[in-house]
Amino acid sequence: NAGVTQTPKFRILKIGQxxxxxxxxxxxxNYMYWYRQDPGMGLKLIYYSVGAGITDKxxxxxxxxxxxxxxxxxxxxxxxxxxxxxxVYFCASxxxxxxxxxxxxxxxxxxxx
Amino acid sequence: xxxxxxxxxxxxxxxxxxxxxDCVYETxxxxxxxxxxxxxxxxxxxxxxxxNSFDEQNEISGRYSWNFQKSTSSFNFTITASQVVDxxxxxxxxxxxxxxxxxxxxxxxxxxxxxx
Lengths: 113, 116
Hints:
The complex is a heterodimer. Chain A is mostly beta strands. Helix content of chain A is 0%, strand content 50%. The N and C termini of chain B lie far apart (41 Å). Chain B has no helices and twelve strands. Chain B is mostly beta strands. In chain B, the strands form three sheets. In chain B, strands 2, 5, 6, 10, 11 and 12 form a six-stranded mixed beta sheet that branches. In chain B, 0% of the residues lie in helices and 52% in strands. The relative contact order of chain B is 0.34. The A-B interface holds A 31, 33, 35, 40-45, 48, 50, 56, 58-59, 88, 90, 92, 97-107 and B 4, 9, 32-33, 35, 37, 43-45, 47, 50, 52, 91, 93, 95-97, 101-109.
C-alpha cells in the first residue's frame, strides 16, 4: 500500500515550458487535491476533485489545469511556466470531503528559471 | 472566508521543556473540522489530529495534547517534555466548505526547534 505517490520529486523548468506533475493513490479515495507550499506561507489549494470526471478550482488555480479520468490519478498541468510557480507541490487524497483526514504525497519541488 | 492564524513563526526551546503552539481560526460555518499536521525536515506532511466543531473535549496522546476552545476560536497544541525529534514545522488547518468547495485552509506554520 503505497498511499499517495507523486512524480517527479524535483524538477527545473525554463520560463514558458510546460510539464505535468503526476499523482496517483491506491486507497480508492474519491477526493483528491493539489496544494502549493511557498516558504513561510503554508499550503494553498490549487484544484480539487470529488471523483472521476469532476474537478473544481481552489484558492489559486491560475496557470494550472487538472484532469481526473480515473479514481487513482489526478495530474496537474503547468502550461506556460512562470517564476511565480516556483514552489513545492503536494498532492493529497481523502475518503470523502468535509473534514476527513487527508493523506499527502511526498511533494514535488519545482523551480522555474 | 476562512482563515487560520499561527502567530508564532518560530519557537526554539531546550529539550525536555514544554511548548505550546497557538492556532486561532475564523469561519462562518457552524460545522467545521480542525487539524494539526507535522512537517519534519524530510518534507512530508504527517497527520496528527482532527477535531470537529461539536467536540470541545481536550485530547491527549502521549506527550501531545490539544486544547480546543470555541469561545476563543483557538485550537492550541502542547508538546510535553519536548524531544529533538519533535523539531519540525507544524501546521494548523481548517476544513474548507465555502460554496460547496472542499479542501483545507492552512495557517502559515510554526517552525519548532528543539535544542539538545
